[in-house]
Write a structure and sequence with these properties.
single chain, 14 helices, 307 residues, 78% helix, mainly alpha, globular
């Protein structure tokens, strides 16, 4: 009798996570849009530091007591928090901001499309995780849909791709994100989602301080005008608190391999944002890509009811 409420709660959490799977990519897409928009007036490390320091300041009032109660665990596992901060906030923060300034959107989309595959491979290599045949089919459909979108429906576009230093930075960031996702699930933590994100974000801010010092010495500080403040606040609330909190929730209830599949939606959401904000019309390849990505995500993340 006592197991029924627990099972219901777990089922409810998984349903919520499956809904958030389609919301979170939109939050992450805002990060890349702002990264490109601010490249000429906010240096990448300073932007990452301001973003994650802001996240800490926003979340701390809501989880400060929990962090204080868990201070023994924080001291014991400080190296884990430092590594997660380096991977998720350092390399995937400043690294992406730096790389986005010297590569194309097509290349970024293609490189990040590999992140879910990297997550699956790392989960299998490090922890022996396996995907079912159904989930593998879904991942394959979603990846095909992403390639249709980033190549604009033209396979010959692969031959025209050129890789720059920025591309290599994005590739490193994609690998770092995959490792962050796998470790986030595999390392048990007594903290809740908000408190854990706050601890990791603070660790990322601390880890980035030496690099920030070098950047300030070589490039100088950003101008703290209205556009800088508006950009930082948006980064803090949307792809900072919003995206990482929902990503952590999904990872907790669906696992790293299935959570990583949400990155397949990014090119679809980018096309939608371009349509809404820039007036760009949907092309046939957008519809075809979405028609592959969406059912692919359903197959890869939805577990049939047991009979």
């Amino acid at each position: 009798m006592s197991s029924t409420p627990l099972g219901f709660a777990e089922s409810r959490d998984q349903r919520i996570a499956q809904v958030l799977l389609f919301v979170t990519p939109a939050l992450f897409t805002a990060n890349m849009v702002l990264a490109r928009a601010t490249a000429d007036f906010i240096p990448p490390v300073a932007l990452a530091e301001l973003r994650w320091l802001g996240v800490v300041l926003v979340l701390l009032p809501f989880c400060g007591r929990e962090l204080w109660r868990g201070r023994a665990a924080l001291r014991r596992d400080w190296a884990r928090y430092a590594l997660l901060g380096l991977l998720g906030m350092g390399i995937c923060g400043a690294g992406v901001y730096h790389g986005a300034a010297s590569t194309t959107a097509t290349n970024i989309g293609l490189i990040y499309a590999a992140s879910p595959v990297i997550i699956i491979l790392l989960s299998r290599a490090m922890f022996g995780d396996r995907l079912s045949r159904r989930q593998g089919l879904g991942a394959g459909l979603a990846l095909t849909g992403v390639l249709v979108i980033v190549l604009r429906g033209d396979p010959a576009a692969l031959l025209a791709l050129r890789f720059s230093t920025g591309d290599l930075m994005i590739l490193v960031a994609a690998i770092s994100w995959a490792l962050y996702t796998v470790l986030l699930k595999r390392w048990p933590d007594p903290l809740g989602v908000k408190a854990r994100l706050t601890a990791i974000a603070l660790a990322g801010v601390i880890v980035l301080l030496p690099v920030l010092g070098w950047e300030l010495a070589s490039r100088g500080p950003p101008d703290f005008d209205l556009r800088t403040i508006a950009a930082v606040l948006t980064l803090v609330l949307v792809p900072g608190v919003g995206a990482y909190a929902t990503y952590g929730y999904i990872t907790q209830h669906l696992g790293p391999s299935r959570t990583g599949l949400l990155l397949y939606l990014s090119p679809v959401y980018t096309a939608v944002m371009a349509w809404l904000l820039l007036g760009e019309a949907f092309a046939l390849y957008h519809w075809l890509g979405a028609a592959l990505v969406l059912p692919g995500l359903f197959l890869a993340t939805h577990k049939p009811e047991a009979t």
